[in-house]
Specification:
heterodimer; A: alpha/beta; eight-stranded mixed beta sheet; four-stranded antiparallel beta sheet; about 20% strand; B: about 325 residues; alpha/beta
Chain lengths: ~350, ~325
């Protein structure tokens, strides 16, 4: 969809062969990750309600929705940080080569987390440890996960920092997180997340704390670097315009339910679900003359509540919307869960 | 109504003395950090002006100067043609009543130990704007005006959501019947749906009450929706200003162009982002301060600092090689 640019990031091409595990160019058709009917219970609340989607190897997927939609919850479940007995899980999370990891043990997750699945958090300044230097934080996973020696880890750390656009990388290794700007901290997070050559990178609102010009740099960087490694990426975003720019596929969530999903070009150019339409109408573009805000309201997570969770705020709601939950059905190039689509 | 400007900034400069980077805390050497450098702008009654820029551009210092919280080191900041810092007595009271502020962090700007009723009524009490018996009715009317149920006045800050608190902050700002609303990132960090509700509310209020609006934001979409005029800041200077529509359809300054390119737009490929970050405002090199990141920079840009010059009656920019003739 978007041209791949190696030049823009000054991509390091001298990576050791052993580290480049994937040689095939992206994207292929094979599913890297399949999420089937994933439900997540916290006490009596059904936080995720039968969420299903599929991510191809080398593709990017966007999880979008308002706060409370379950976007970050999905990301945490996918990296094994939200597991029973803390929460109740049903359904399947299948990762290529690892199989069904829904009920995987912590020991099994330790082989995946930080290795095949890595994550970039929203607030880099909170995710980096303020007591350790950048060098230590980036070299520790290199030594533990890849088993590199001290010198090799240092060389690789410098390479990684350079590939994420941090100039003067050797001296940055001795810097502490507070000595870097927010954009630089986020670059370090990306370098750490990419250090193990993951198959799946989870980026949870990676730019919402950054200025727009830095946001563009960071999103471009994540796209270029995952593409170069043939890795897949899941972006958690609330900005639909940004999602249209960086995601091949999109999953629109409301109150833990998938309301519409498909190729972002299809879903976002002609949204059919009233919620997707309303979200799109809230996005300010430069030409926006008139806004039609959604009425306020938060979804109920009560596990007994039947029906579509968006119904109380929906202008097109029918009687049955509140009582019978609509299933995701293939409609005009995407999957849609709505009794009364536009 | 007179057209004399409410606010006028005349070549305002604000410099801070800071320790030299890397030097010991006790070192005597001080460097000058110019947070604002020759800022000129005016706000007329009923006008809406957006101040746009990234972090480090001096937006917050500008705001502090406008509110009289910081004294400019050079130049003059005027409210109704009087120096803001020297306002006293009745003038000072009038200034406090006429200029209302909406802060970015609504939760932090509202006292958690006061009920919503007391928070919204505080400006009324302070300025003696209503009789004790009418207090509840006035607060109820203000809350309803911002789209909150009147019963909410009995609640406390902790019981309200982020979007509701922003509304309370707006109601509180409106209580003193101001002529200018000054808002610092008043809609950032919210869900798009909540943001859209607040933007619509602010625009309706501004139009219906004939308020002047000075809106600080980093989002060009917000600026375009809410404000007729825009001023783009970079490292303490206004680099371009004019009618929002004109500036955003045909920017003259490469920085304005870069901000536009970086704003998310549906299905537009993410074009080559601006390289690097905003440099440190300490000891700036001579010449245009944007030159280090500018794709159009030439040798003269690094030698002479371009002044902010009027191109048309509505448009000013500071660039030696502008994008428009």
């Amino acid at each position: 969809m978007k041209p791949m640019s190696l030049a823009a990031t000054g991509a390091a091409t001298s990576l050791p062969e052993a580290l480049e595990r994937h040689v095939e160019p992206a994207p292929h058709k094979a599913a890297l990750l399949t999420v089937e009917d994933l439900s997540l219970m916290r006490g009596d609340s059904l936080i995720l309600d039968n969420v299903s989607f599929m991510l191809r190897r080398g593709a990017t997927l966007g999880l979008v929705g308002e706060s409370g939609a379950g976007k970050s919850t999905i990301a945490l479940a996918l990296i094994g940080l939200l597991r029973p007995p803390e929460v109740g899980l049903a359904g399947r999370i299948c990762l290529e080569q690892a199989g069904d990891v829904t009920n995987a043990t912590e020991a099994a997750w330790l082989k995946l987390r930080g290795r095949r699945v890595t994550m970039i958090f929203q607030d880099a300044s909170a995710a980096l440890n303020p007591c350790f230097t950048i060098g230590r934080q980036i070299m520790t996973p290199l030594r533990r996960v890849l088993g590199l020696g001290r010198t090799a880890a240092r060389a690789r750390a410098i390479e990684l920092l350079e590939s994420v656009g941090l100039n003067d990388a050797p001296s940055r290794l001795a810097a502490y997180p507070h000595q870097l700007s927010g954009g630089m901290q986020q670059r370090v997070m990306i370098a750490i997340a990419l250090s193990s050559n993951p198959d799946l990178l989870l980026a949870d609102e990676p730019t919402s704390a950054l200025d727009v010009t830095i946001q563009a740099q960071i999103i471009r960087l994540i796209m270029d670097e995952t593409r170069r490694r043939a890795a897949s990426c899941i972006f958690v975003l609330h900005d639909l315009a940004l999602a249209s720019q960086c995601c091949d596929d999109i999953v629109v969530l409301y109150g833990g339910q998938v309301v519409e999903t498909g190729p972002s070009r299809v879903v976002l150019s002609e949204p059919l679900h009233p919620y997707t339409q309303a979200l799109k109408a809230c996005v300010l573009e430069l030409e926006t003359e008139d806004l039609q805000p959604l009425p306020s309201g938060a979804p109920s997570f009560a596990s007994r509540a039947p029906g579509c969770r968006f119904a109380p705020r929906c202008a097109r709601a029918l009687d049955k919307c509140a009582s019978v939950k609509p299933m995701l059905i293939e409609t005009r190039g995407r999957q849609l869960a709505c009794w009364n689509p536009a | 109504m007179t057209t004399a400007p409410l606010f006028r900034l005349l070549d305002v400069q604000k410099a801070y003395e800071v320790g030299a980077p890397g030097a010991s805390l006790l070192a005597r050497t001080k460097r000058s950090l110019r947070a604002l450098d020759g800022v000129r702008l005016s706000l007329k009654p009923g006008e809406s002006l957006a101040i746009v820029g990234e972090s480090g551009s001096g937006k917050t210092t500008l705001l502090r100067v406008l509110l009289g919280l910081t004294q400019p080191t050079d130049g003059r900041a005027l409210f109704r043609e009087k120096d803001i810092a020297e306002l006293a007595g009745a003038d000072r009271d009038r200034f406090c009543r006429e200029v209302a502020m909406i802060y970015q962090d609504a939760r932090g700007s509202l006292n958690p130990r006061m009920s919503i009723l007391d928070l919204v009524a505080e400006p009324l009490d302070h300025h003696g704007l209503c009789r004790r018996v009418d207090r509840r009715d006035r607060v109820a009317a203000l809350l309803m005006r911002v789209g909150l149920p009147a019963e909410m006045m009995l609640r406390y800050v902790s019981a309200l959501s982020g979007g509701q608190l922003r509304r309370v902050a707006i109601a509180r700002a409106l209580a003193s019947e101001p002529s200018v609303l000054v808002a610092d990132e008043a809609v950032s960090g919210l869900d798009v749906s909540t943001q859209a509700q607040l933007l619509k509310l602010l625009r309706d209020l501004q139009r219906e009450m004939g308020l002047s609006l000075l809106f600080i934001t980093h989002d060009l979409g917000v600026a375009a929706y809410l404000c007729e005029r825009i001023a783009v800041m970079y490292l303490g200077r206004i680099v371009e200003s004019g009618l929002t529509r004109e500036v955003l359809t045909a920017p003259a300054h490469p920085y304005t162009r870069a901000l536009l390119n970086a704003s998310p737009r549906f299905f537009a490929p993410i074009s080559d982002p601006l390289p690097g970050e905003v440099p440190s405002p300490i000891d700036l090199p001579p010449g245009c301060r944007f030159a280090s990141r500018c794709v159009r920079a030439e040798a003269d840009c690094r030698a002479t600092e371009p002044p902010l010059q009027a191109a048309t009656s509505t448009r000013e920019f500071a660039c030696l090689h502008p994008l428009i003739a």
